Amino acid sequence: MTTAAPPAAAPSGAAHVTIPVGGMTCAACQSRVQRALGKVGGVHDATVNLMLNNATVVFDPTVVSPQALVTRIRESGYEAEIPKGETSALDAQDENEQRQEAEFRALRLRAIVAFIAGAVAMFFSMPLMMYTSHVAGAPGNDPLMLWQERVFTPWFVKYVPWTYAIHPNWLTYGGLVLTAAVMAWAGRHFYTRAWAAAKHGATDMNTLIAVGTGVAFIYSVAATVAPGFFASRGVAPDVYYEAVILITAFILMGNALEARAKRSTAAALRALVRLRPKTARVVRGGVESDIAIDDVLPGDDVIVRPGERVPVDGVLVSGASDVDESMLTGESMPVLKNAGDRVVGGTVNGRGAFQLRATAVGADSVLARIVQLMRDAQGSRAPIQALADRVSAVFVPSVMVLAVVTFGVWFWALTHAGASSSEAAVRGIVSALAVLIIACPCAMGLAVPTAVMVATGRGAALGILVKGGEALQRAGDISTVVLDKTGTVTEGKPGVTDVVRLPNSALSDDEFLRLVASLERASEHPLGDAIVRHADSRGLSLAGVESFAAVPGRGATGVVDGRAIVAGNAALLADWGLDAAPLAAHASRVTGEAKTPVYVAVDGALAGLVAIADPLRDTSRAAIARLRALGLDVVMLTGDHQRTAEAIARQADIPRVVAEVLPDGKVAEVKRLQAEGRVVAMVGDGINDAPALAQADVGVAIGTGTDVAVEAADIALMRGDLHGVADAIELSRRAMRLMRQNLFWAFIYNVIGIPVAAGVLYPSFAVQLSPILASAAMAFSSVSVVANSLRLRAWRPRRASSLQPA
């Protein structure tokens, strides 16, 4: 991706760029890159994502350039590069998948080699243990050491006694060479990244690993080269080569499993990318040919055969077929498509064949825009992550201090208990190493982003596009849901049911309808469209309109065939000094039947009304019952007539209605609810309701499958079904529960693990972790957090039938 227009929340004139960042391994890395970017002049906002390994920066292009941002990232000790050219979200995601796969394979290979090397080192370390009762400095009740001494060593003595004939010097020097090779190849990145951070006065997870294994290696080298120095001071010259190798192996295994799990969190994105066909059959100059999908141009005629995926977005020009749009809406029922209907690339054609005219390709396609929206959402941060960020910023330095304190306490305690200084130093070093190795900032850095990625991916599979971690978190706090009526609670497909003309009108029924329909043809309002369709069905020939004016929330005015036409509600008539009283009885009747009256005046005189009904969606009542069962207050907000709105509300079982409000009145009502301390979600079509959507704490736009991203909304529903609102809230609550679980376990792991590694249980139970077991625990901590988040992939919304209203 390249520099592009800023998101809606960005300052005017700002741009944003997404920069790939390499070398980040933990929350401390993420925090350091973010702080470095935040200090650059001209940067309005910087979001660094450990899962996607990138940084999204909103900046002032007149003050700072993308190259300067890349330079600043490099100066902080990490790899970065200018994004390559203009690519679609599909191509960018495909490249990211390839990088993640390569990273996983490389880590897996290094872990396997390290484990093999560790097994060899442990095999040949058994004879060395004959010289001491147990590894110097390791407590007698250490589980790993007990297993070595009581199980592994006796087995060696019985079955491979020849190993004990090897001179100890050969074993120690062989272990030195093998360990150095593993550190230089399999674990090289730990040390290079730790050094890069140190050069910039920073620390991260690599620092803990590098210091821990480095101290153990240096101590072992000293014991190998000068064993007499240790022996003369009453300390066995034990070496920890196998420990260094196995620590490296366990950490690499954890990194590999983490990389694999991180790839799994992006399964929804990967599935979307794979929906795009590689080729399309295009008709050019009367000749059919299969060409690469990237070579299709808008305006090309594309042939889609039975069972094929639709290659690009377009409009049917011939043929008909049922199309499976479940990848967009989550609905498995195919949709019949005829000439003139729109289809979306990536959907599946049924048994028919058709020809379409391409309208959007590449980055402009619906599929690419969905993928881009999901990538942006998964790259965003949830507010709950701020706690982990604050802890991560001081975590590694704090652990370093704790390791030094651990060494000091052990040294002081043992020397006061009568142990020699050398023995006390060895025990203190082993304990300090365990503290350094077991500490894990990775789990804290992954706790929130993994849940955000899986939740947004699961939402997309259900036809719910959540625009970021902040929206995901806020959705779980919603207490009041405000629903627009037309197209949200109702189908949004109104139809004319009654045409009422005053007896004293000189107009015939057809002429009356023709004049109104001619005016409404210039309108974009659904009610106007219903009148036009009704006139067309009666074969009326419509005229052009002059001086057309739409009055938001009231109606429209204009001149048709030289006659002044006013069509709208009673308030619009009042604006023109007209009284709707002669039609009051008719209006009362139709509004009581949940119909909307459109009053019509011709040449300054009231002429009649047109009644329009917009039927309730089949799923609205059940969906609203789900919302109420979730403990939410439901309000319907509409500009329609009060009696009409109340009739619809009764059908949908909505307890509260606010009717006859203009767009600014909807905003005022949302503000009023917020002033009462409520967290408000506004649900609408994203067009007339845009101001209220923007004002609400969570704006939810109901789409039709191709309305991918309504700028004013935080959540976009791919199908026009209120069940999606309940699904989104349930998903948010579930995701937030997992985020809190992840953070709890990430914190509690360190709160418990570090003291145990330091030896807090040793005085009472003589139990202390060895560095090897500490490394295994550290590897498990990160993987467990990711695995917990992955449980969201199997989440399914609850059915309304299983809920009871609150």
What is the compact description of this entry?
The protein has 806 residues and is an alpha+beta fold.
Task: Explain the overall architecture.
- This protein is of the alpha+beta class and 806 residues long.
- The chain is built from 28 helices and 26 strands.
- Helix 6 crosses helix 7 and helix 14 runs parallel beside helix 28.
- The model is unreliable at 1-9, 131-140, 705-709 and 800-806 (pLDDT under 50).
- A hairpin with a 3-residue loop joins strand 17 (545-551) and strand 18 (555-560).
SSE diagram, text form:
Elements: E1 15-22, H1 27-38, E2 43-49, E3 54-59, H2 66-75, E4 79-80, H3 89-125, H4 143-159, H5 168-185, H6 188-199, H7 205-225, H8 227-231, H9 241-265, H10 267-273, E5 279-284, E6 287-292, E7 301-304, E8 313-319, E9 321-324, H11 326-329, E10 335-337, E11 342-343, E12 348-349, E13 354-360, H12 366-378, H13 385-416, H14 421-438, H15 442-461, E14 464-466, H16 469-475, E15 480-484, H17 485-489, E16 495-501, H18 509-520, H19 526-537, E17 545-551, E18 555-560, E19 563-568, H20 570-575, H21 584-592, E20 595-602, E21 605-613, H22 620-629, E22 633-637, H23 642-652, E23 656-658, H24 663-675, E24 680-684, H25 690-695, E25 698-702, E26 715-717, H26 723-758, H27 762-765, H28 771-790
Parallel strand pairs: 15-22, 15-24, 22-23, 24-25, 25-26
Antiparallel strand pairs: 1-3, 1-4, 2-3, 5-6, 5-7, 7-13, 8-11, 8-13, 9-10, 9-12, 14-26, 16-21, 17-18, 18-19, 19-20, 20-21
Helix pairs in contact: 1-13, 3-5, 3-9, 3-10, 5-7, 5-9, 6-7, 7-9, 7-14, 9-28, 12-15, 13-14, 13-15, 14-26, 14-28, 15-26, 15-28, 16-26, 18-19, 21-23, 22-26, 26-28
